Amino acid sequence: MPITSIKRADPSPHFKRSFAKLPPKVQKKVAAKVTFFETNPRHPSLKIHKLKGKLKDRWSFSVDRRYRVAFKFTNGDEVVYLDVGDHKIYR
Prior knowledge:
With 91 residues, the chain is α+β, with helices and mostly antiparallel strands.
């Protein structure tokens, strides 16, 4: 992941639905981490990692110890947020 900032980021419809189901306090955390990711995608606190297996085209970063955001790169420095939630998003 050689990029230093995200040029464009769009939430998928599924991400929007998953986000809406989160408690308001968690929604605030997610929004803050998404903003942080977009300005500093290589920061170690995000624990960004490429997923494996059937999700091998996706990446993930940590919101906190429980919640994750799954995303994929669409054009180098552009991303689509695919899902948000606990580890169940990987199933």
